[in-house]
């Protein structure tokens, strides 16, 4: 995910081409290869199935799994290569994977939750206020932003790490942090640097 020794032609993570090229070459070091354990535990603990959006879904393993749990999930990504991969993995739920830009996509029904994994850290820090504002727009009071947040101090990315003070400043105005836990089973680029967090829209 960091600077490319691979000679990729796109260097701009804000363009779909950047991600497309990496999916096309199978260079996806952020890819967990399955459904993270913390998400499985979180879903098992919920009293009812939720309507959830997976923005920047990449391979989107979570989509089919959430549907199997009875949740109402939609996965979006703006890179056609990611969408093709996620659709293939989603099997009978492939129509739940959409090619769309997170900043423009509109939900057909109210969301109970936005799932975060390697999406905020895919964006340069200058974009973070826009991401946070869109999360807040998409979620009504009481709805949840839940997932994995990447903490690091290297200026180069993606992945672009954040620190806790900055994350609090980014989200604290509109969300309350109701869960913050260490993560087991991280893949190498995130190990020791990601936390499972749940933020509730105020
Ligand atoms: C680092 S990957 C993470 C993929 C996936 N969430 C995962 O955990 O494996 C970031 C993904 O976000 C997508 N993405 C970036 N900006 C986007 C945007 N504005 N709208 C939709 N998808 C976007 C990219 O195409 C890419 O698939």
**Per DSSP, what share of the residues sits in E-state strands of 2 or more residues?**
15-25%
Identify the CATH architecture.
Answer: 3-Layer(aba) Sandwich
The SS-based structural class is alpha/beta
* CATH homologous superfamily (4th level) name: Vaccinia Virus protein VP39
Unreliable parts: none
Series of H and E elements? HHEHEHEEHEHEE
Report the total helices.
6
Largest sheet: 7 strands, mixed
Number of domains: 1
Q: How many DSSP-defined strands? A: 7
Shape: globular
Written description of the protein model:
There is one protein chain. Helix content is 28%, strand content 24%. By secondary structure, the chain is of the alpha/beta class. It has a single domain (35-201), classed as Rossmann fold (3-Layer(aba) Sandwich), CATH 3.40.50. A 7-stranded mixed β-sheet has the order 3-2-1-4-5-7-6. The mean pLDDT is 96. The site of S-adenosylmethionine (SAM) has 20 residues, from strand 2. S-adenosylmethionine (SAM) is lined by residues 19, 30-31, 55-59, 76-79, 82, 101-103, 117-119, 122.
Can you lay out the helices and strands and say which pair or pack?
Layout: H1 16-24, H2 37-45, E1 51-55, H3 61-68, E2 72-77, H4 80-90, E3 97-99, E4 111-116, H5 128-138, E5 139-150, H6 164-171, E6 175-182, E7 194-201
Parallel strand pairs: 1-2, 1-4, 2-3, 4-5
Antiparallel strand pairs: 5-7, 6-7
The protein binds S-adenosylmethionine.
Relevant terms:
202 residues; alpha/beta; Rossmann fold; seven-stranded mixed β-sheet; 6 helices; globular; binds S-adenosylmethionine
């Amino acid at each position: 995910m960091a600077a490319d020794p691979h000679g990729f032609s796109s260097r701009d993570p804000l363009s779909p081409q950047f991600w497309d090229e990496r999916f096309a070459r199978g260079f996806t070091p952020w890819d967990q290869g399955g459904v993270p354990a913390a998400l499985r535990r979180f879903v098992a603990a919920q009293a009812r199935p939720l309507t959830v959006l997976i923005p920047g879904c990449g391979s989107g393993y979570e989509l089919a799994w959430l549907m199997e749990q009875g949740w109402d999930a939609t996965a979006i990504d703006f890179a056609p290569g990611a969408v093709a991969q996620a659709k293939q993995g989603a099997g009978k739920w492939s129509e739940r994977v959409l090619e769309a830009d997170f900043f423009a996509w509109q939900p057909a029904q109210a969301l109970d939750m936005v799932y975060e994994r390697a999406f905020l850290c895919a964006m340069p820090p200058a974009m973070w206020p826009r991401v946070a504002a869109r999360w807040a727009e998409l979620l009504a009071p009481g709805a949840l932003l839940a997932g994995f947040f990447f903490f690091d101090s290297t200026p180069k990315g993606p992945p672009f790490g954040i620190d806790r003070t900055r994350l609090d400043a980014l989200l604290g105005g509109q969300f309350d942090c109701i869960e913050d836990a260490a993560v087991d089973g991280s893949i190498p680029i995130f190990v020791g640097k990601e936390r499972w967090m749940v933020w509730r829209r105020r």
